[in-house]
Write a structure and sequence with these properties.
globular, about 100 residues, YaeB-like fold, 2 helices, 5 strands, 5-stranded mixed sheet, alpha+beta
Amino acid sequence: MAVIRWTIESEMWLRDIHEYISQDNPSAGARVVKSIYDKVQILRDLPEIGYRYRTEEEGEIQILLYGHYRIAYLIRETEQIDILGVFHGSLDIESYL
């Protein structure tokens, strides 16, 4: 079972998503962030469930889809998964990864 580690950047993305949605509907903001967090937990047992985005020296960057969001993560050789960011589908993630 892999260990999931949220990077500081990915935590900031989640916080921004929560704040944006919560402007109109605070309960929806909390619900979306919780659902994204729950979706990421699948990676513990199925780390390669996402699609391959790019290979880096540190490992494989993959993308897991959830609704309008793309969850970028790095699979390291040491049974560790780093969540790199959570991006709205309209964003060009190439600018961030």
